[in-house]
Amino acid sequence: RPVPVTVAVTGGAGQIAYGLLFRIASGALLGPDTPVRLRLLEIPAAVAALEGVAMELEDGAFPLLESVDISDDPWLGFSGANIALLVGARPRTSGMERSDLLAANGPIFTEQGAAINAVAADDVKVLVVGNPANTNAFIAMTNAPDVPAARFTAMTRLDHNRAIAQLAKKVGAPAADISRMTVWGNHSATQYPDLAHAAVAGKPAVELVESSWVTEDFVPTVQQRGTAIIQARGASSAASAASAAIDHIRDWALGTPQGDWVSMAVPSDGSYGVPEGLISSFPVTCANGEYTIVPGLDPDDNARARIDASVAELVQERDAVIDLGFAKRD
Ligand code: NAI
């Protein structure tokens, strides 16, 4: 029997986890041959609810699910984790500024970064979903000096998938026909969904849609999609976010298809003028459990300005959490 993979998930009693955990248990994350051990983390007030989720996981009788452990202690929860999905975060409540949100989440990701550093498996891969995702990932990364920085990533895959869906709908093609979509920057309204290199069944997307649709419809729809879901559903995207988290880790672990790429927020290596170490979304290819930023795309002036604006927001967030003492420069 293959070696089981230990997957730690924070925010285990939350909405996204409710969509995520059952798919992990079913094999959607790592394929039908890899058994999984789940380690679920919550805050003390939500441990009782988490016990209920663990009971439901048990009731799924999933052949691949070897064990479910629950905890409110990151030093236990991340123990031996090969994959860590940091979904739990302090939500933004009314009247809260972005700076308040950064301050509220700083201690959570400082502690979780330190715990991952101390007790996770040597090969740990980290995905931060909890918002502000890029900067939370940055905090965790800088608090885990013994883990290679490249293992800390944040989720822009939902934005990527939303961009694919909008283009597919526009041209009347199945989502499977869309390749080389790109999302740049922050997981926020400043993100830049870019279809300059996207293809529909191999044909350049820019030849199939009007440029006015791209600027007036496509870009704002993708940027504002999270808000539109909240307005329609009365709660933020959960099942689609869970699905995107599965896609992110599966592609990172098992590889992207030949000729295609995906969007992941990863520590910059200085590519595309993004300051080194900043966790920003890039197009990446994955193979052998590692990702590579797609080189040589040469964004045009408009794309350049949009990427720069989103990166400027990330720099501000980074500087704010450094000033608050949650992260160190370098
Ligand atoms: P939720 O509020 O339903 O669940 C969050 C859970 O995290 C709660 O059960 C809470 O008790 C738990 N939690 C809070 N602090 C924790 C800690 N220190 N350790 C362990 N657990 C902790 O929220 P939902 O809908 O599941 O969303 C989770 C996060 O994901 C939010 O921050 C949301 O903004 C973000 N999100 C990110 C997306 C992305 O594309 N990157 C998309 C959608 C949501």
What does this structure look like?
By secondary structure, this protein is α/β, with parallel strands linked by helices. The protein has two domains: 150 residues, Rossmann fold (3-Layer(aba) Sandwich), CATH 3.40.50; 160 residues, Lactate dehydrogenase/glycoside hydrolase, family 4, C-terminal (L-2-Hydroxyisocaproate Dehydrogenase, Chain A, domain 2), CATH 3.90.110. Helix content is 42%, strand content 18%. The chain has a six-stranded parallel β-sheet. α2 links the parallel β2 and β3. The radius of gyration is 19 Å and the shape is globular. The site of 1,4-dihydronicotinamide adenine dinucleotide has 28 residues, from α1. This is Malate dehydrogenase.
Question: In a few lines, what is going on in this structure?
Answer:
The chain has helices at residues 15-26, 47-59, 74-77, 98-119, 133-142, 157-171, 211-233, 239-254, 301-323; strands at 5-10, 36-41, 65-71, 83-86, 125-128, 152-154, 178-179, 182-184, 192-194, 199-200, 203-204, 262-267, 279-287, 290-293.
Total number of distinct structural domains: 2
CATH topology of the largest domain: L-2-Hydroxyisocaproate Dehydrogenase, Chain A, domain 2
Q: Could you tell me how far the N terminus lies from the C terminus, measured between alpha carbons in angstroms?
A: 42 Å
Using the 3D structure, state the CATH architecture of the largest domain. Answer: Alpha-Beta Complex
Strand-residue fraction?
A: 15-25%
Number of strands: 14
Shape annotation:
globular
| Strand order within the widest beta sheet | 3-2-1-4-5-6
Corresponding CATH superfamily of the largest domain: Lactate dehydrogenase/glycoside hydrolase, family 4, C-terminal
Question: Which kinds of small molecule does this entry bind, naming each only once?
Answer: 1,4-dihydronicotinamide adenine dinucleotide
Q: How confident overall, as mean pLDDT?
A: 96
Q: Helix content range of the residues, please?
A: 40-55%
Question: Over all CA atoms, what is the radius of gyration?
Answer: 19 Å
Biggest sheet descriptor: 6 strands, parallel
